[in-house]
Batch of 2 targets.
Target 1
Amino acid sequence: MSKEIILSGIRPTGRLHIGNYLGALKNFVKLQNEYECYFFIADFHSLNEPFDPKNKYQQIINLTKDYLAAGLDPKKCTIFAQSQVPEHSELAIILSNVVPVSFLFRMTQYKDKSADRAAENVNSGLLFYPVLMAADILMYHPTRIPVGKDQTQHVELARDVARFFNGKFGPTFIEPQPLYTDSPNIMSIIAPEKKMAKSLGDNHCIYLDDEPETIKQKLAKAVTDTGDGKSLGAKNLLDLVKIFSQPSTHKKFIADQAAGNLKYSELKQTLAQDIADYFAEFRKRKKQISQKDAEKILAAGSKKAQKVAEKTMSAVRTRIGIR
Ligand code: AMP
C-alpha cells in the first residue's frame, strides 16, 4: 500500500523562531519517517510583505539549512522551493476562478495583516495568498497538512477549493485535513496575547540559532506576574518549560505556582539554559552545512517535486479543457 502524502511549507522571511519549530518543523522531522513528505520553501508567499531583494535568495538558502539542521533528510522527504516549480503559479491562477473573492476577504490573516498595513498600499498578493496556498497543497494530493493553528482557515479554504473544483470539473483533488502538534500556538515572550512572529520584532521571538547568551537576555525581559502564574506571559513560559525542560523541573515550577511563590528569575534562567541546550546540536549542524550543499539539495528536490506537479497539471489542463 502506498504511504499517505503530507505537505507543508515555511516562508523564507528571516530566521526561524521556536513557534515555527514547535508548530511545524519539529513535526516535519517526525513525519518524514512515516509518510511520503513534501516540505517546501514558500518563497513566493514571502513576497507580499516588504523585503529586500538583496537578501531574498540567502533567506531561501538559510531556511533550507534550517530544514536540514533540524533533521529533515532529503533521502526521506522531498525538500523544494516553490519558485523552482512554476506549476504552482499556473495552478493558483486556474484555482482562482473557483474561489469566491468574498472567501478571501473574510480570511482572518488577511483582515489582521491588511489592518496592520492600512497606512501602506495593501498588495493583492496578501489577498491571493490562500489561493496560492491551495495550489501548493492540492498539487501533491496530500491527506494531511502539518501547520500551526494560525493556518487552519487556509487549510479549510484549500478543502473548499478542492470541493468546488471537483464539483465543477470532475474528481481531481483530495480534501486534506490540518495536522497539529501538541503546541500549535506559541506566544510572544513580551506580548503574550499575540502569537510569536518575526514581524513583531526580534525581542518577541527566540530564534533557533540564537546563542545561549542572547536567549538568556531575551527571556530576562519576558513579561510575567507577581508569582501566582495566572497571567498569559507566565502560562506561556510554563508551557515552554514543559517542552524544553525535564519533567521534574516542570513539576517543581508548577508546585511553586500553586503555592503562589513562583520565582521568575529562576524559571527564566533555567528555561534559557534548557532552550540553549535543546538547540545546541541544531546550531552546530547548521554551521556545517555549506551553501553549495543546500543549493544542490533544493535543486534536486525541486526537480523531483516538479515531476509530480507536471502530472497533476496535465490532468488539470485536460479537466478544464485548455488542452
Ligand atoms: P510562516 O512563518 O508563517 O511561514 O509559518 C511557518 C509555520 O510555522 C506555519 O505552519 C505556522 O503555522 C507555524 N507558526 C508560525 N508562528 C507560530 C507560532 N507562534 N506558534 C506555532 N506555530 C507557528
Target 2
Amino acid sequence: ESESPGDLRTPIVAVLGHVDHGKTSLLDEIRGSAVIDGEAGAITQHIGATAVPLDVVSEVAGSLVDPTEFDLPGLLFIDTPGHHSFSTLRSRGGALADIAVLVVDVNDGFQPQTEEAIRILKDTGTPFVVAANKVDTIPGWNPTENAPIKQTYEAQTDRVRSQLDEKLYELIGELSGAGFSSDLYWRVQDFQANIGVIPVSAMTGEGVPDLLTVLMGLAQRYMKSEMEVNIDGPGAGTVLEVKDEQGFGKTLDVILYDGTVRKGDTIVVGAKNQPIVTEVRALLKPRELAEIRTEKRFEDVPEMQAAAGLKIAAPDLDDAMAGAPVRVVGDRDVATVVEEVEAELAEVAVETAEEGVVVKADTLGSLEALANAMQEAEIPVMSAEVGDIAPRDVAMATTADDDKHRTILGFNVDVLADAERKADEENVRLFDSDVIYQLVEDYETFVEERER
Ligand code: GTP
Ligand code: MG
C-alpha cells in the first residue's frame, strides 16, 4: 500500500456537518480535481473513506504546498452522512478522527447538526477547521475553477466581496457563541488557539487547494508524533457498519486506525453480549473504477495497513455492533484482547450522573444518540449500556433515590423475562421503543402524570 511508507500512518480526517451542506460534494470535488489534473488512480477509494496521498495534495494545492516539507503520507477522509453515524466514530483514544472538517453552508450558517457536530468535537477534543461552503452561490460570484480562495476572492467585485465577508463574520460569530475563537484561516497564527475558517466551493473547487493545504499543515505540525505507530503491529479499528453482503454473509465495514490486519488473523469484535472471537476470511476493498464492470464489487486483498477503510468478512459476526472496537489478537493472549474490548465497550462516552435513569440500546451509536436526546431533554442518566434489559439493570435502577428515576429506557432491545418479573417486584418502570424521541416523550409523560 503506497499510503503507508515507513512508520507514519495517514491522519484520519472526518468530514461532518449539517445535512446538504456539501460534505459528499466536497470529497467528490477533491477526487475529481485530482483525476483531471494528474494520473487517475492516485487517489484510492476505501470502504467508507477516501485516501488522498501527499503527491495529490501537493498537486491540487499547487504553489501552496511544497511536498518536501512533509513526511506524512497524505490524508484519509471519512464522509459521515447524518450525525448518528458520526457518533460511532469513536476509538480507544476517544475520537476516531485525528482532525475534522466541519462543513457549513455559508448561506445557512449553524444548523442543528452543525451544533451537534461541534458538541462532539468539543467533547472529544478533536482539532478541526471550518469549510465555509457554497461561496459560489453569493449573487454575482465570478468563479475561477479550482483557484486558491484569496486569488478568487480578490477577483470579485466589492459588492460580492462584502456580501461574502458579512456571511463569514456571521459564521465566526456563531463559532464564538459555541465557545470557539476563529478567523479566516490566513489570519490564524496558532491553529490550536483559533479555528481556521476556509471559504470554499465544492461546485467550482475554489478554496479546495487551501483546505487541503491547511489540513496537511495541521497534521504535519501538530499530529506527527501521534502518527508514529507500529504499522506492522496488530491492527485496531472501529466498526462503522455491520452489513449483509452477498456471497460473504455478515461483514464489518471498519476504519483501521492502527497496525495491520491480515487474512487469517484472529480478531476480537465488540458485540451485543460477549465479544466475538473469530478469524478473518477475507479483506475487501472497492475495485478500482476501471474494473467496476466486472461482477465483483470488491477486491480481496491479503493485508491492509492503517489508516484505511476496509470490509472484513468473517464467520459469526451476527451480533457485532456498529461503533464497537475490532482488534487483531496477534501474538497476544486472546483473553487479554477480549478484556481490552470489554473494557472499551464498558466506557461508552455517555455522560452519566450519580442519580438518574438507566438506559439500554442495541448499538453504541444508538446508545450515544439516545443519551444525547436524554441530555437535551435534561433527563439525568445514571447508567448507559448496550444490550437487552437484564435483571442486573433492574437492580441498578433500584439504587435511584428519586422514584421517578426508578426506570429503565430501552431502545431497540428485548426485556429478558426474569428482568420483567424483577422489575414488577421492585417497582421499577420499564419503557421500550424503537423510536428515540418516543422513548423520551413517554418518559416525560410518565413524570408529568406522577407529579399531577
Ligand atoms: P448529507 O450526506 O445528506 O448529509 O449531505 P452532504 O452534506 O453530503 O451534501 P451534498 O454534498 O450531498 O450536497 C447537497 C447539495 O448541495 C447538492 O445538491 C450539491 O450539489 C449542493 N452543493 C454542495 N456543495 C455546493 C457548493 O459548493 N455550491 C453549490 N452551488 N452547491 C453545492
Ligand atoms: Mg453526503
